[in-house]
Amino acid sequence: MSHSEEEKITLEHQAAKLFMRWYERNTGKHIRHIWHNDPIRPDVSCLLEGERLDLEIAHLYGDEAEAMAILGRNLTDKTREVLHKLESEPTDSRLLQSLNRILENKSKKKYRSKRVWLVIRNAHPAWSKEDIKALEHLITIPEPHAFEKVWIVGDMAGETGIVRLYP
Fold first, then answer.
1. What domain count does the chain have?
2. For residues 122 and 92, is the Cβ–Cβ distance under 8 A?
């Protein structure tokens, strides 16, 4: 397994754990035991009150240049230039575009699973759970899609909780 694959799995597990902790805190329903799946299935599986639940995990960064900066990669001059240009764009429209792009891409996927929830972790330090909630009425979740529910973890560290985007 490559370093980037290991990192992806680590990020997915962190996101799943943060989500599960908040979900359990908010609902009182037990959600436990995560394990990683092969690509044909959603990223992570767990047990929600004893029933299998699959979680597809995504991270909200903005764009590739921002993702590289957030993940602490070495940045090329070109990437720095892209980041500089992005700083002048309105934050709300970039957040909405990025979130709708993830939802569009994930809605096209098919899973071998009875129950799948999409969990998106906001990894962008300039965007907050409140920013996401303020744009909720503008978020587009394409139909059809495979998700019973769609959630967002409000920040990278999972300190601000979760928001249900669908239904």
1. 1
2. no
Which of 164, 124, 125 is closest to 141 using CA atoms?
Answer: 164
Could you give the CA distance from residue 138 to residue 133 in angstroms, rounded to a whole number? Answer: 10
Q: Which domain holds residue 110?
A: 3-166
DSSP assignment, residue 125?
T
Residue 96 CA to residue 39 CA, distance in Å, equals 27
Work out the number of other CB atoms within 10 angstroms of the CB of residue 134: 12
Three-state DSSP state, 163 = strand
CA distance 151 to 145: 14
pLDDT band at 8 (very low <50, low <70, confident <90, very high): confident
pTM (two decimals): 0.86
**Across 58-62, 123-127, 141-145, which has the greatest mean pLDDT?**
141-145
Q: What is the pLDDT of residues 14-63, one digit of tens each?
A: 999 999 999 999 999 999 878 888 777 899 999 999 999 999 999 998 77
